[in-house]
Amino acid sequence: MDKKAAIAKIKSLAENGGASGASFEEVYARCYCAVQKTLGITPFDEQLSAALSLYEGRMVQMQTGEGKTLCAVFAACMQAINGGSVHVLTFNDYLAKRDCEWMKPVYDAMGVSVGFITEKTDRNERKSIYKKQVVYLTAKEAGFDYLRDFVCFDPDEMVFPEALDFAIVDEADSILIDEARIPLVIAGDLAAEDGSATAEVYAKLTDFELDEDFEIDEESRNVYLTDDGADRAEDIFGCNIYSEEGAPLLAKICACLKARTVLKEDKDYIVKDGAIVLIDEFTGRAAIGRVFPGELQSAVEAKHQLKITSRGRIMGNIALQYFARLYPKIAGMTGTAELAREEFEKLYALSTDVIPTRLPCKRTDHPLEMYSCGEEKRAAIISAIEEAAQSQRPVLVGTESIEESEAIAEELRQKGVSCAVLNAKNDAEEAAIISRAGEKGAVTISTNMAGRGVDIKLGGEDCVEKDFVVEAGGLLVLATSMRESSRITRQLRGRAGRQGDIGESRFFAAANDEIMNKYELKKLAGRHFPDESVSGAIDDKTLLKEAERIQRISEGDTFDERVNLMKYTMIGEKHREQTFRRRKGLLDGSYNSELWQEHAPELYEKAKQKFNEIALQEKQNIILAALLNEFWCDYLDYTAYLREGIHLTQVSGRNPAEEYNIACEEYYDSAADSIPERMAEKLEELLQCDTLEDFKVAMPTRTYTYLLDDMAEEFKTKPLLLNVFEEEEPQPKPEKTEKGEKKKGFFSSLFGKK
């Protein structure tokens, strides 16, 4: 498409008022006029260019303050007027409501129906809202509605659209990359296990010592028992923890040790209102509704002596990455798309368009400032804030953790510098705090969150003191450490210099920062690494070059992890799609089960004579739908155990992803083969009833939705599976050793052919 020619034609049609058709030039021209009339805004050429890219299904990079929200309206109207539907997936509920209400006058003028859904939207209302042509909501809420339909037994209770069309993803790098691996989960109270035993296990492990009883893999952040630790655990609990029966106990033990030694309060999570609230590692936000995987959530609750929460049995899940791929057409907007171009292309087949800013950027971005230690770095940061505060220049400080944000704020207050703190403990005030961050003399201490989607205007929301702030140098952005992704660095820098405003950014790091230790800066820099504390910033070019290289290494690692995870999870997505589609067909009438007719014809004839045939068929469909729920629960349990066991078994010459996929495929097929027999058993039970109503189908009385903080740590070491699909062989009698019995592997029997 020749964008310049298209934009010229759109503006010409808008000026002449002759647009009435459904071509993109005519629809965009009408939308252009509607924006002018209802919002009093004249769209820029850059916004029209971005809007054209969105409708073509591309990833758009636009800087902060350039009007991404308005661009989405053009593309959404074009899709809606041509018979389609659009979901605008926002970063949070606040933005879903704000953007919908803000842009509704334009949609109304275009004759396009629009609505929004948040976590508080009643389920009965959602069905009608989803029928609107354009819906604003988070990917999380859309995904949960998709999963809830899987546990419905009445088609009228299903709310999610049967056919999806077009998704426009706002802050796409966060949703499609940073949070892409996070599974949305729905669980029910069917056969839920009591987690209170975890507290007892935790209490018995308080004197286990690092290195002596257990070790920590720093890269994967996993905990492993030593031989001595395993012997101690077996003495305490009186069982072989490496037997099949001991597997759940072993999982609890490792989770409790990890909760105690690896997970840190105010960095990995906070305790709020008597509950554990996770902190998103990329944004620093409170990840409401997200839980640690497996036994880890209960272990952290036990660590703080909180009530162990029951989350029920997992009945369905889908990672955000795969949920987004359910849409036939997808587009996205973010300020940092260029830095993730390769990932958008590889994972989503999305090309990236970089839209130039309307006005030249006047922000001054300083190179990385390196200090020998954390104390020197902290002193430099405090000094920079004090200097800005003296001239009443607004400052936004991006910190790495809650602990750091509060420590800096306390030090500033002791020096007489007032400041506002924005972190996961008070994120409800995020929009208000960020909107004031550009005011004269404002000092805002934030974690990585930094108010995405909310503009920081110089001089405050009404810009009354803009001239003073501009004279002072504009907004100063300070970052207290190097982030693992350059996109986060770019996002923080992008808070200043909005729409051609003047601004400045400075980034600080210390040679002993966590990321520098993790990726061994000392080894990379060699003799250039400072062996002792040095006053002031270090200007050694080799050291600075290697420090910046660490960020690229980190980005490569996380990208490889996401690609690697896809190799393991795609098989599950294939099976999920097959199971969900078949179950939905049973309930909406598009598919009737004939398992009883084909596999238990004699019993079926008896049932036909005893019950009404039409009602019997409906009952068969409902029973099979419930059985598919059980089947899928079992499948998820199996794959969870399979993943937990990967790091324990290694054999050279096999590809771990292939072995995992083979195991999942064999289990799925063998479990599916058992369904006719299980259905026949249900029919026998049904024949014992006097009426069809007397047969009660097993359904959950309550369901729960949450996000699983699943970083797939068990796949990072990429080991190989042993005996994944071989028949179980007789186990030899364990040999005695000085420490006691030789440990037996149980995964061959657990993962043997079902």
Q: Please give the order of strands in the largest beta sheet.
A: 3-4-2-5-14-1-15
The percent range for strand residues is 5-15%
- Ranges where pLDDT stays below 50 over 5 or more residues in a row are 647-652, 717-754
Radius of gyration: 29 Å
Mean pLDDT: 86
Q: Which descriptor suits the 3D outline?
A: globular
Our count of helices gives 28
Helix proportion: 40-55%
Query: What is the count of β-strands?
Result: 25
Largest sheet: 7 strands, parallel
What would you call the structural class? alpha/beta
- Terminal Cα span: 55 Å
Task: Provide an overview of this structure.
The protein is an alpha/beta fold and 754 residues long. 46% of the residues lie in helices and 14% in strands. It is built from 28 helices and 25 strands. The chain has a seven-stranded parallel sheet, with helices on both faces.
